[in-house]
Write a structure and sequence with these properties.
The structure is a single chain. This protein is α+β, with helices and mostly antiparallel strands. It folds into 2 domains: 2-231, Rossmann fold (3-Layer(aba) Sandwich); 234-371, OB fold (Dihydrolipoamide Acetyltransferase, E2P) (Beta Barrel), CATH 2.40.50. The protein is built from 10 helices and 20 strands. It has helices at 38-46, 91-95, 97-100, 111-117, 133-146, 163-174, 176-180, 191-197, 215-220, 349-355, and strands spanning 2-11, 14-23, 27-31, 53-57, 60-63, 76-79, 151-155, 184-188, 200-205, 208-214, 233-240, 249-253, 276-280, 289-296, 300-303, 314-327, 330-337, 342-348, 362-367, 371-372. The strands form 4 sheets. A 6-stranded mixed β-sheet has the order 6-7-8-3-9-10, with helices on both faces. Strands 13-12-11-14-20 form a 5-stranded antiparallel β-sheet. The chain has a 5-stranded antiparallel β-sheet with strand order 15-19-16-17-18. A hairpin with a 2-residue loop joins strand 4 (53-57) and strand 5 (60-63). The protein is globular, with a radius of gyration of 23 Å. Bound molecules: adenosine-5'-triphosphate (ATP). Adenosine-5'-triphosphate (ATP) is lined by residues 11, 14, 34-40, 189. Adenosine-5'-triphosphate binds next to helix 1. Residues 309-374 form the Mop domain. This is Molybdenum ABC transporter ATP-binding protein. It holds the Pfam family ABC_tran. One of its GO terms (molecular function) is ATP hydrolysis activity. It comes from Oceanisphaera profunda.
Length: 374
């Protein structure tokens, strides 16, 4: 199932002109500088911005040249930067606002689970006016989910929150896509939120979509805006396993087929669930299950064969996918790991020549450090 959209919004000093198609699943981040049109695009998808174009959610048409389904007839959830709750109603009445208006057949049967998952059960009787910013936002997300949406639109849901509230909600958002079982569009200008939450990235600039990428593709762009203030990094999705008595925590990645040409026999540490394993230390207390690792290009070295007598534990078979000259004698490599995961490595042009590395070369990625995104 796909989402197909095209909109043209003409304002006095701004034009939104977009046309895109992407899978109707997972989290798509709308990322780009302030004023590039992220909110305008979200509003057009919701039907709040009436403009020429089309919008298809799978087989359902919400807008084309002959049809415009009004916003109240679209089954969507919209969460704004600041939660607009009904201040005179309790948390429970706020949560159930859309749910009560649904025909019985459309009501989700996991209402209690969602309320519990968002940590709202103890707050149900409380008035909405008495909530903190983070609590309000959790109620807004719960209310949107309970209206059984077929599309969830989140417009910078964390931007108005302080650091503590952000830390409280981010882990919940990570599981939102699975909980909601619907496609999610997530507006942000925070690269760290894209890295943690997104499956796809629509990179916007001046009212247009510059790139419509998977997260891996977005991170593979050497001069991506995702790195504007930071170093080049890669994200690996996988499963965190229980820690060993010696303190090491296995992280298994790449459950799918690799298609990289890396020889099966080369994989040193095969796990049951994934194509490869990365050992972490210092994460004994971390919650097991789905997780993401962030690996900086500067923390990855390359060798042509496994290296013994070295402190680096993680030595993963890899293949060079691309090489980009970053200037000042630095070259950015994109390495493909078993299972199709990709990580960047930053090497000197001198080392590249010494190792005679080329696109397609088989090698070993030596990972010096990896940060668990929790
Ligand atoms: N009601 C309006 N009338 C006229 N221009 C508007 C209106 N709303 C927004 N704009 C302009 O449209 C452009 C896109 O705005 P939009 O809010 O979609 O950007 P954004 O990418 O979401 O920005 P931010 O990240 O700062 O929230 C901006 O130049 C803005 O000034």
């Amino acid at each position: 199932m796909t989402i197909k959209a095209a909109f043209k919004v003409q304002r006095a000093r701004f034009t939104l002109d977009v046309n895109f198609e992407l899978p109707a699943q997972g989290v798509t981040a709308l990322f780009g500088p302030s004023g590039c049109g992220k909110t305008t695009l979200l509003r057009a998808m919701a039907g709040l911005e009436r403009c020429p174009g089309h919008f298809w959610l799978g087989e359902q048409c919400w807008q084309d040249q002959h049809l415009f389904v009004p916003v109240h007839k679209r089954r969507l959830g919209y969460v704004f930067q600041e939660a607009s709750l009904f201040a005179h109603l309790s948390v429970q009445r706020n949560l159930e606002y859309g749910w009560r208006r649904l025909p019985q057949a459309l009501r989700r049967d996991d209402k209690e689970q969602i309320i519990d998952w968002l940590g709202l059960t103890p707050l149900l009787a409380q008035g909405a006016a008495e909530l903190s910013g983070g609590q309000r936002q959790r109620v807004a997300i719960g209310r949107a989910l309970l209206s059984s949406p077929e599309l969830l639109l989140l417009d910078e849901p964390l931007s108005a929150l302080d650091g503590k509230a952000k830390r409280e909600i981010l882990p919940l958002l990570e599981h939102l896509s699975a909980q909601a079982k619907v496609p999610i569009f997530y507006v942000t200008h925070a690269p760290e939120e894209v890295e943690r939450l997104a499956d796809r990235v629509l990179l916007m600039e001046q009212g247009q979509i510059k790139h419509n990428d998977s997260l891996q593709q977005a991170l593979a762009r050497p001069h991506s805006l995702l790195y504007k203030d930071d170093e080049v990094a890669g994200i690996i999705s996988g499963q965190l396993r229980p820690s060993l008595p010696d303190g090491r925590v296995p992280f298994d990645y790449g459950a799918g087929d690799s298609g990289t040409g890396v020889d099966e026999a080369d994989v040193g540490e095969l796990s049951d669930a994934g194509a490869g394993r990365i050992w972490l230390t210092g994460h004994e207390g971390a919650v097991m299950g789905a997780a993401r690792l962030r690996i900086l290009a500067s923390d990855v070295s390359v060798a042509l064969a496994p290296v013994t007598c070295i402190s680096i534990v993680n030595q993963l078979p890899a293949q060079v996918l691309s090489m980009t000259d970053m200037g000042q004698g630095r070259v950015l490599l994109r390495l493909s790991l078993k299972g199709g995961e990709q990580i960047p490595a930053q090497l000197s042009a001198y080392s590249i020549a010494q190792l005679d590395l080329k696109i397609g070369s088989n090698c070993y990625a030596l990972i010096k450090a990896a940060a668990l995104l929790v």
